Amino acid sequence: MRSRSLLPLAFASTFASVLDLPIWVRNTYSVVEVNVGSPPVPHFLLFDTGSATTWMVDAECVESDTCHNGSGYPRTGYSATASSTSEPMNTTTSIDYLGGVTSGSGILDVFTLPTVGNCSSPFSWTQSFLSANQSSWTTLPSDGFLGLAFSSIADANTTTLVETLMQDGLLDSTRFGLYLGTETNDTGAGAGNGLLTLGGSHEDVYSVEGSLAALNWSSLQVPGEDAQLWRTSMQYTVGKQAKNDTKHTVTALGSWAVFDTGAGRISVPDDVIEEIYASIGMNWTAILNHDVIPLCADFTDDWYLDVFFGDSDNPTQVRITGAMLKTPGFATGEDKYCWPPFDPSGVSGLFLMGAQFLQNYYTVFDFGGSEPANYSARIGFGRLKDEYKPVVGSV
Length: 395
Ligand SMILES: *[C@@H]1O[C@H](CO)[C@@H](O)[C@H](O)[C@H]1NC(C)=O
Ligand SMILES: *[C@@H]1O[C@H](CO)[C@@H](O)[C@H](O)[C@H]1NC(C)=O
Ligand SMILES: *[C@@H]1O[C@H](CO)[C@@H](O)[C@H](O)[C@H]1NC(C)=O
Ligand SMILES: *[C@@H]1O[C@H](CO)[C@@H](O)[C@H](O)[C@H]1NC(C)=O
Ligand SMILES: *[C@@H]1O[C@H](CO)[C@@H](O)[C@H](O)[C@H]1NC(C)=O
Ligand SMILES: *[C@@H]1O[C@H](CO)[C@@H](O)[C@H](O)[C@H]1NC(C)=O
Ligand SMILES: *[C@@H]1O[C@H](CO)[C@@H](O)[C@H](O)[C@H]1NC(C)=O
Ligand SMILES: *[C@@H]1O[C@H](CO)[C@@H](O)[C@H](O)[C@H]1NC(C)=O
Ligand SMILES: *[C@@H]1O[C@H](CO)[C@@H](O)[C@H](O)[C@H]1NC(C)=O
Ligand SMILES: *[C@@H]1O[C@H](CO)[C@@H](O)[C@H](O)[C@H]1NC(C)=O
Known about the structure:
By secondary structure, this protein is mainly beta. It has helices spanning about 60-65, 160-165, 205, 270-280, 285-290, 355-360, and strands at about 20, 25, 30-35, 40-50, 55, 85-95, 100-115, 125-135, 145, 175-180, 195-200, 215-220, 230-240, 250-260, 265-270, 305-310, 315-320, 345, 350-355, 360-365, 380-385. A hairpin with a 6-residue loop joins strand 16 and strand 17 (about 315-320). The protein is globular. One 2-acetamido-2-deoxy-beta-D-glucopyranose binds near residues 369 and 373.
């Protein structure tokens, strides 16, 4: 049974077009529930700001074990023949993600959300997505992905869910808001207190800043280029604050940050990872060689990574401290050893900001317009109020 009892009263919205989707966490993956087809069938989808195509495995693929289910969670395949509103788009595609391959064909069908705000009537629209007859995502604890990047990179002629709703005029505003919740490992048989809000945002409830204007905003705009990902240019400095230790401070230009709910961790460019670890008093090579296992006691507010997102003339600062990155259970499974704070991204200049970054903020993804022609996208961060901070060690 999903429960809405944790939602503050502030969500009693009078706008039918602000859609609050409670977040379930399954083995550190954040998923939401949507109903698909006629009659509606519930599906769980991993929402991913790092990709754009919404897809779900098809029923035959699940049954034949071609889409092998090794996640430990049940899976429901999409059945076009069982839905009276299913329509083929006559497109096919194969998508290569960093973590797997998915192939299938484009479908149009009715998506339904059980309740909207405090209204009891369901909210429905026609959505394009990929019905997958092949997927190598065997450990994915969902039926597929819900892509929240931009339709400019969506496959099989599909349009992202949020852009479909915006362009159909069904949303109250051209943004979505994200609070990942206090429980970051597993919420068990129901949703946790995390919330994905489409067509609005709740910075007033979750963030210290309290208003849209007070969030730290960065523009996505790249001259002459369509927006594809929630990506900004960035610079960074790393160091230790208590000791006034400036000799290890690193500043770099020409880097990019991609904000990706589909990624778990924070990844940094390979060519600077050694330097970043050194600046916070750790030795990356020694960790890689298993000579050293990071101690959780070393994950304190004493060290930080300051990131400056957006326009280099007027960047917005976000500070990530060691305490925010404390994740016990590395290597030996013992609580005194913590996961190394940063992974290598494998791409020069690329910083990948996954859930471990995003869980510390209330994040607003704003298209700034309802049509691609007049998008002016930006991303805003607010510091979480104490009661909404993630519970350390639950990753
Ligand atoms: C998938 O795995 C879960 C857990 O092992 C199991 O309960 C379920 O029956 C499997 N198959 C499907 C189709 O969900
Ligand atoms: C797909 O092809 C069928 C049969 O040719 C056609 O009826 C249908 O309109 C096409 N669908 C789309 C979305 O173009
Ligand atoms: C929804 O909330 C508004 C404002 O609190 C209230 O006026 C309205 O009666 C509520 N509607 C339902 C269906 O509960
Ligand atoms: C999946 O569908 C595509 C396109 O219809 C087809 O080419 C491919 O062979 C199918 N793959 C499997 C494993 O059935
Ligand atoms: C995708 O849509 C465009 C127009 O919206 C159309 O011209 C194109 O043929 C479609 N592609 C496929 C593979 O159906
Ligand atoms: C995380 O969740 C998994 C699956 O429910 C569980 O086995 C594991 O013990 C949990 N880890 C922590 C640190 O709570
Ligand atoms: C760090 O520098 C500031 C200003 O330069 C100074 O006020 C502070 O006492 C210094 N802290 C330590 C621990 O040295
Ligand atoms: C880091 O660790 C490696 C391997 O353990 C060692 O060779 C190297 O000297 C260490 N670097 C520093 C700066 O201590
Ligand atoms: C926003 O920037 C200010 C400094 O300009 C900083 O003090 C504040 O912590 C930042 N907010 C977030 C969410 O990092
Ligand atoms: C956005 O662009 C569309 C055309 O793509 C136009 O019809 C619409 O009026 C524009 N909206 C605004 C607010 O500029």
